[in-house]
Structures are given as C-alpha cells and as structure tokens.
Design brief:
120 residues, elongated, mainly alpha
C-alpha cells in the first residue's frame, strides 16, 4: 500500500465528516423549526434558525473543500488534466457557496443588531 491509498482513505473520512455535519445541521434546523412553529413565526426566531443552519452548512462545506484539496494530491503530473480541472471547478463552487453563506450570515447579524430596541 502506498501513500496515495492512505490519502484517498483520509479524504473519504473527511468527506463523511462533512456530510455528517451537514446532516446534523439539517436535522437540528428541522427540529428547531418544529419547536418554533407554534409561536407564530416571528422574524427573530426565523433568523436564529437560518443562522443555525448556515453555521452547519459552512462547516460541512469546509470539510468537503478539504477533501477535494486532498484529492488533488492524488493526480499524477502529466495525467488527469480533465480530473484536475473538474476538481478545481468543484472547489471553486464550494468556496463561492461558503463565501455567500458567510455574507448572508453577516447580513443577518447586522439586521438583528439594527432591529433590537434601543434603551434610553
């Protein structure tokens, strides 16, 4: 067994962790939604639910990006330019998704801070 075998197995493990994190976020968001459902859907609760989901999505995406980066190590020089190009596109798409999720999260945080009643 060579190094490529171990890199592939580690990358697969990292991918499973990323998918598991996303699934935890989806299930947690679903149960939070069910918990807040009887309250009449105020904006504050929905923004908390979205923020919860975004945290898990970004963390899961980061693991999947790490997996893709590890897989680029397995591509031999001179071979697999198509495979390398596909991996680079996947990595770029995941990074862009992660960026926009972070941007939406910061927008929600700013929106929450502006909506708080001011004392005094």
């Amino acid at each position: 067994m060579d190094l490529a075998f171990y890199i592939e197995k580690i990358a697969l493990g990292v991918a499973y962790i990323g998918v598991f994190i996303v699934l935890l976020g989806v299930l947690g968001t679903f149960f939070k939604f069910l918990y807040y459902l009887p309250s009449g859907h105020p904006e504050r609760e929905f923004s908390e639910i979205r923020h919860f989901m975004m945290l898990y999505l970004t963390l899961g995406l980061d693991f999947l990006i790490a997996k893709d980066i590890m897989l680029t190590l397995l591509i031999e020089r001179g071979e697999g330019y198509t495979e390398l190009f596909q991996l680079l596109i996947i990595i770029a798409i995941r990074i862009i998704l992660s960026y926009f999720i972070h941007m939406e999260d910061s927008f929600l945080q700013k929106f929450k801070s502006e909506r708080k009643p001011k004392k005094g």
